[in-house]
Design goal:
With 307 residues, this protein is an all-alpha fold. It has two domains: 1-92 and 103-199, no CATH class; 207-307, no CATH class. It has 13 helices and no strands. The chain has helices at residues 3-21, 30-40, 42-87, 97-127, 131-149, 157-169, 171-193, 198-201, 219-231, 234-265, 270-283, 285-298, 300-306.
Length: 307
Amino acid sequence: MGPRHLSGGVLLVLSSALLYLTFFLSVVAPLPLIFVRLTRGRVAAAGATFLNMALVFVLSSWPGLVGYAIFTAATSWLISELAVLFSGRSKNKAEEAPQALFRLLSSSAVGLAVVLLVAVITWATVAQVSPWTELARGLDWLGEQMMAQSPPGTMDPADWALQKEEWIRNLPSSASIAILLQCWVAMTLMLRLNPARIRERLAISSAFHRLWKNPEWLVWPTIASGFGALVLSGAAADASGNLLKILLAFYGLQGLAILSGVFDLWKLRGLVRALAFFLVFTLMLPLVLALGFFDLWFDFRAKLRQS
């Protein structure tokens, strides 16, 4: 192996830590570890994970290392291992692709949520602190900073107390949606890069970005949680509201798949396509959710194919 190939291999192995440390590109940091796992095996991936964690620890100490271990290393191992596991069970049928995508994403997201919960419980046990107390303390500090930097009269302690209560009440759904999006980005990049022909092994076509479809049974807990958020009160309403937001995030992905078909029909590519997605999500997010939810009854993609 020549120096150029060696340096390229080292850069590939360590690129996960470098992407994570940029903060803005941290969402794609799992991809190099996924690539190593699928193309070189578990031993090489374990070595790459250890080297990246060592680099992150040297450059950002314990807080950075913990974040990398949970949100990058755990994501990459969950996505790649579940992809390998499900590839051995996949049937070579095109109609299996939506189920394979949903199974891979939901399993990875649940696994990452468990990893995060175990990490929080372990930290609370070792440090002998209450996670909720520490969260409230951190939010109080954030509120002080925001009120100090806000123009006079724009934010007072009463306003911040309401905002803080709202954030804490929506914490379960906010954390769950963040985990879901982290796993979705990692899964999408893996399927686009297609290392070790993992897409073919999962019986998923190259047009997977248009194939996302939630199982039909998901509509019933979505309707039930929406009804509960409307008619219940107190903690029960909060729980129903959080569950509704998590389930709607799945329908947002389905709406995104429908929009991908629309943009393909309009031949939108590159920067124009990215700008269109940005405008739709920032200005018409309810439309995206509605497209995904009502697709069960109207099958918008079938109508697009007919057109």
